[in-house]
Inverse folding.
């Protein structure tokens, strides 16, 4: 499963993503002045959750036994709505710095090739309880499974764009257009879901209003299952407050869609399912009374018949805004972003940037929102001649307190400019 | 501190190597314990579904009977008309001194030609016949150095317009065997006079082939060597006088599988009805003596006492010919039907023994009065003398610890992968019993060799209670609910879910008024719901 294979990268590579990737890469926007061309690679991965602790997820991914203590740590984090999100984003960028200091030429051009994975969910506490404790504790009770939303999306992106660095003086405007190759999609949206377990277990009843979309996952069709396009827009404007200079930036990233091919699967039904065991007509039918028939395709076909059909989906779109003010010895940035179609809350943050000698640069960010509540992140950057190496670690709360909080992430980026 | 490119490269390499090692360690899937409470099986079964027997019959008044029909014995045509294998030898030796035989010259001919002989059929005197099967085998050896022509005919054996014959050339010093199937041939056994019986008329002529060159045969040398065999001849139709013969059958046992699944307890039946049907499809008078008819179970043998049936001579008239073309029956059989019931026999005790087999001894005499038909006895293949027994047992009974055992193929888990995850738990049976009997259950688990290796004991105190009945009508008023619980430790859980065959013992007893016969109706239902509450490890 992709989820289990990619999430460990969070812990292994210590890569982070969300707070920085919500914005345009500064290398595209800002001509460092050290060269005509820039080429870079980056990779970031991020896991964050309001509920699922880092310890729980680590054990899950390591294939360990998940004991009651781990489960209880998650239970203690339950809220009305519980969120988790994971993303993996890596790729390469190239920039042609065509603008000049005197702004005789004001346009820079860039190209990027990226791979993006998103898995995120919004779930009720009972979903976790049913999955990890079973339905027996709910005998005679109704487990509330909704609202439940799960998105799992993978796609590749080829982007070309341009940034005008001289709009009305010092404002900047960037536009990027992308061709998208849809690889994998699974979307579950259960707007209504109640699971009732009879007091004596004589029947189980599921009331469900569920929509399910999935790309073709049959062997041989696991890479190119759809195509689409997206648009990135960036705009920044300098400002001055109390003699302090600053830049107000806003951006829209990944405003687009993917059309999935005709082998894609849909399910959309508002119905009630009642299961009262495998019906046998006589004692000789006992050989058909297999428990694991409950998970067989036949059961899925009976209760969740899927239709093969092409459809469109929106990709997670990020809207961000921030104001970065130069206080001389350090910069202070206030910002917020929100990702549509991602089960995320709006994220608000404050970040301090401090530059040191020998090309060192650090930052510390404190935030609220996203897939967790409180977040803390640190970053360090080293400029070595024409090479810039950036390394950020995010969601420190989940790393420092893995038994209580969930989150970990990191980013690594290497950029090099050429004359 | 100054970090150069080499140090950064080493740092990145270290991170990637660490990551690779970390990922490489992820061999297992995570696991955790859950508790699953879910229905496994539900069933609503009538008596037909519970006993799953083809002997269950629903009656128009919704009562249910066990009906068993089987044949005790069958006498076919070949038991009264036996045509033995017969061999006719045709050999000729030169006793006339050295001779020269020219091409086309006759070497041997039957004398007289044709020759009529009596076919050895014993006391049976046949005048006509049609053959069902059998072969004529003509084996020839040519001892000469030139080809020889053989012409063999059986003049009174005809199929359509063709006489049974063999015309063949046999090469020098060769042997030849020709096999001709006899099915469909008609035989007139009356001979050339038209008044004989069992007669067979043949002709054989042997010539030196016209294409041969003259042959010199020394004195004493064999000239002709041939053998004609009639083998495995079974008639489809035979006519004549079959003779007064007596044949004995038995003592023999025939299976009576109605009570096979009962392994213990007692059964009191309120009423039974047995019909013994004797059918004579032969055009021959017959008398029968059924000297015994026993109910056998586990060494207990109860003879049937039925006046006029067992131990008496029973005369069965001959069948009459319908002269109807196929596929209509060629005979109109004579049928005798003897009803055996509690008033004229001990049939109740006989069946309360719950026999697993029926023993019998029988003596059949054909033509007991001699040739009263003027040699017009006849018989057709497939239409003989048979004795059939028809047992009808209305299910109105008293059961006392009546225990049924049934071996059932099961597949609770479907795959070993599933069972490994079930750690322990409880199986609960929720029963809604619409029958006027209580039932105690016991499960025995069989290994792959179908040997019992473990059992799941359900305490005797846990039974499926009998439904209450109306005191006047004896009909169940409403189903009775019961709950049976089977606690399973990890070992028993594994065994239960791994087994592919179980033996289910169901012990039945009466409800209230245990000495009153209770009828079973086809609308009575036993509702069962099997619910599992398992500690299940997801992996």
């Amino acid at each position: 499963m992709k989820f289990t294979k990619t999430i460990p990268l969070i812990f292994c590579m210590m890569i982070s993503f969300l707070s920085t990737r919500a914005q345009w890469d500064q290398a595209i926007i800002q001509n460092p002045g050290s060269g005509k061309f820039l080429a870079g690679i980056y990779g970031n991965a991020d896991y964050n959750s309001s509920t699922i602790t880092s310890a729980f997820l680590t054990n899950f991914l390591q294939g360990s036994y998940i004991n009651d203590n781990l489960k209880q740590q998650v239970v203690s984090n339950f809220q009305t709505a519980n969120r988790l999100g994971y993303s993996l984003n890596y790729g390469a960028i190239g920039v042609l710095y065509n603008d000049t200091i005197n702004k005789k030429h004001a346009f820079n051009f860039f190209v990027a090739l990226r791979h993006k994975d998103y898995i995120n969910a919004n779930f009720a506490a009972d979903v976790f309880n049913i999955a990890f404790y079973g339905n027996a504790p709910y005998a005679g009770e109704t487990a509330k499974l909704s609202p439940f939303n799960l998105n799992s999306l993978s796609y590749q992106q080829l982007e070309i764009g341009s940034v005008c660095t001289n709009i009305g003086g010092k404002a900047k405007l960037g536009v990027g257009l992308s061709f998208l190759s849809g690889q994998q999609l699974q979307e579950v949206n259960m707007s209504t879901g109640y699971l009732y377990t009879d007091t004596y277990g004589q029947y189980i009843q599921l009331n469900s209003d569920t929509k399910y979309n999935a790309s073709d996952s049959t062997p041989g069709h696991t890479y190119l299952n759809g195509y689409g396009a997206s648009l990135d827009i960036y705009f920044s404007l300098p400002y001055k407050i109390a003699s302090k200079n600053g830049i107000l930036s806003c951006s829209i990233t990944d405003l687009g869609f993917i059309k999935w091919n005709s082998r894609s699967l849909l399910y959309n039904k508002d119905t009630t399912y009642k299961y009262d065991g495998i019906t046998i007509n006589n004692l000789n039918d006992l050989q058909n009374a297999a428990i694991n028939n409950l998970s067989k395709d036949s059961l899925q076909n009976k209760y969740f018949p899927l239709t093969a059909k092409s459809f469109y989906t929106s990709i997670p779109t990020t809207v961000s805004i921030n104001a970065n003010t130069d206080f001389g010895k350090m910069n202070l940035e206030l910002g917020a972003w929100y990702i549509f179609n991602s089960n995320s809350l709006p994220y608000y943050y404050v970040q301090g940037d401090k530059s040191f000698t020998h090309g060192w640069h650090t930052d510390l960010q404190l935030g609220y929102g996203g897939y967790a509540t409180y977040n803390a992140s640190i970053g360090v950057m080293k400029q070595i001649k024409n090479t810039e190496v950036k390394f950020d670690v995010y969601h420190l709360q989940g790393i420092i307190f893995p038994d209580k909080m969930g989150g970990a992430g990191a980013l690594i980026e290497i950029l090099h400019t050429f004359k | 501190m100054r970090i150069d490119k080499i140090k950064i490269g080493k740092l990145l390499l270290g991170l990637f190597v660490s990551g690779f090692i970390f990922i490489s360690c992820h061999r297992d899937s995570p696991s955790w314990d859950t508790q699953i409470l879910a229905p496994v099986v539900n069933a609503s079964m009538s008596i037909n579904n519970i006993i799953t027997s083809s002997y269950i019959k629903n009656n128009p008044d919704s009562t249910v009977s066990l009906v068993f029909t089987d044949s005790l014995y069958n006498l076919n045509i070949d038991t009264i008309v036996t045509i033995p294998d017969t061999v006719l030898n045709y050999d000729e030796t030169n006793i006339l001194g050295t001779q020269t035989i020219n091409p086309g010259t006759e070497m041997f001919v039957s004398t007289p030609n044709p020759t009529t002989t009596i076919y050895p059929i014993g006391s049976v005197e046949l005048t006509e016949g049609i053959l069902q099967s059998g072969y004529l085998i003509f084996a020839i050896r040519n001892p000469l150095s030139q080809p020889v022509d053989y012409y063999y005919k059986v003049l009174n054996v005809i199929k359509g317009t063709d006489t049974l014959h063999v015309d063949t050339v046999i090469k020098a010093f060769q042997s030849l065997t020709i096999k001709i199937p006899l099915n469909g041939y008609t035989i007139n056994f009356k001979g050339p006079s038209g008044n004989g019986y069992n007669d067979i008329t043949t002709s054989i002529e042997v010539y030196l082939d016209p294409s041969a060159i003259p042959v010199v045969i020394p004195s004493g040398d064999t000239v002709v060597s041939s053998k004609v065999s009639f083998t495995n001849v079974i008639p489809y139709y035979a006519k004549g006088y079959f003779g007064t013969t007596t044949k004995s059958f038995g003592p023999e046992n025939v299976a009576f599988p109605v009570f096979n699944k009962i392994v213990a307890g007692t059964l009191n039946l309120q009423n039974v009805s047995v019909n013994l049907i004797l059918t004579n499809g032969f055009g021959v008078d017959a008398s029968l003596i059924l000297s015994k008819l026993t109910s056998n179970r586990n060494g207990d043998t109860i003879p049937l006492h039925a006046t006029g049936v067992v131990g008496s001579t029973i005369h069965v008239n001959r069948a009459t010919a319908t002269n109807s073309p196929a596929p209509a029956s060629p005979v109109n059989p004579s049928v005798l039907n003897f009803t055996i019931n509690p008033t004229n026999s001990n049939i109740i005790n006989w069946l309360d023994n719950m026999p697993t087999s029926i023993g019998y001894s029988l003596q059949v005499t054909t033509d007991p009065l001699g040739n009263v038909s003027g040699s017009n006895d006849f018989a057709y293949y497939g239409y003989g003398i048979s004795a059939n027994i028809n047992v009808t047992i209305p299910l109105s009974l008293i059961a006392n610890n009546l225990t049924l055992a049934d071996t059932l193929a099961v597949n609770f888990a479907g795959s070993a992968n599933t069972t490994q995850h079930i750690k322990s738990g409880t199986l609960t049976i929720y029963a809604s019993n619409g029958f006027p009997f209580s039932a105690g259950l016991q499960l025995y688990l069989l290994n792959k060799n179908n040997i019992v290796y473990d059992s799941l004991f359900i305490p005797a105190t846990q039974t499926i209670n009998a439904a209450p009945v109306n005191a006047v009508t004896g009909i169940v008023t409403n189903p009775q609910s019961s709950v049976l619980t089977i606690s399973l430790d990890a070992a028993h859980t594994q065994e239960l879910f791994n087994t592919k065959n179980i033996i289910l013992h169901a012990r039945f007893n009466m409800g209230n008024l245990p000495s009153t016969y209770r009828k079973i109706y086809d609308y009575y239902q036993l509702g069962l719901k099997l619910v599992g509450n398992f500690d299940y490890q997801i992996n």
Chain A has a mean pLDDT of 87. Chain A is about 15% helix and 55% strand. The radius of gyration of chain A is 24 Å. The first strand of chain A starts at residue 37 and ends at 49.
